[in-house]
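INFO  loader      accepted 1 record
INFO  loader      residues=398
INFO  predictor   begin
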Amino acid sequence: MDISIRAKQISPSLTLEITARAKKMRSDGIKVVSFAAGEPDFNTPDYILEAGHKALQSGYTKYTPAAGIPELRNAICEKLKNDNALEYTPSQIVVSNGGKHSLFNAFLTVLEPGDEVVIPSPYWLSYPELVKMCGGVPKFVETKAENNFKITPEELEAAITDKTKAFILNNPNNPTGAVYTRRELNALAAVIEKYEIFVISDEIYEKLNYEHRHHSIAACSDMLKDLTIVVNGMSKTYSMTGWRVGYAAASEKIASAMASIQSHSTSNVNAVAQYASYVALSDKLHGDAFLEDMRATFDARRALMMLRLSRMGLSYIEPKGAFYIMVCIKPFEGKKFEGVAIRSAYDLASSLLEHAQVAVIPCESFGAPDYIRLSYAASEKDIERGLDAMKNYFEQLK
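INFO  predictor   done
INFO  writer      dumping tokens
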């Protein structure tokens, strides 16, 4: 007996491999600076923790509607209206076990076997795997560094064929930190409307936006709203990664189908996490204060990391959102550390971890083989210490 073709198609995660090795080194007593984190290093705010405790004490531990409790779906509607100028009803909201689950439900709902999904590169490494798991075919578009790795309308249109079913837009972007302006979104919207393809708009880093106001492509027009599945969640915004609460907003038809799929797969999200998420969104006073503090802290770390990288003479993509910086490693390819050649970003990441005790993410799995990704979800002290170690390492390359 053999496993399914679907399972064989899934690629292993280099991100998890590097992260696991770094954790093992730490457990062995080795001091490792990690620039690999894909989550905020803040604890979940106290007012959300208290809401979770209250939910437990009040007996909110039973099954809920598969698509989410009414209170949370109402709060999500209010959030989308106030923050994104998007009007939805609670029946158009599906609460899932994290943003990744929302993406999986979305692809499973709209894709037929063989349908193509346009994915701008660099991309979050799970996008193509999710598409393949749902029977789709990833169609990668190589974006350009001079455009800050943002897809242009011309590049999008050139990628669309009669097999194209959907387009993934990650804004702000992981791993590049790119943020699309309203004008750029309007230009992409014109192409999408012309061909009437679905948009999966992943806006999970919406609140970590440093230089521009966040705009959702779904707000470009009524037609775009009907074609778009907006995906967001609590993980990055409220530092609730382990609570596993994401959500999607879509047309009535799509949301209903996503809810049905979820009802027969995972059913409802953890009830306590849902009640805590409702309070997280509803308590604007505490929520806004936490968000502003976290955003300002990340912005200061962003500036520090860019300053240090510039002083080291490294080429990088200036991030406008999220908490990652992509650093070009082409100058190091072919060089050697203690006689061992660096032939790829993975080689460099492995060598940095072994010899400098710094964890970075190689971007081969993100569609950017000449880059590594550094997360500044780390203290300023660790950023300084980690970059000092990297500088010393690079000086020893021959």
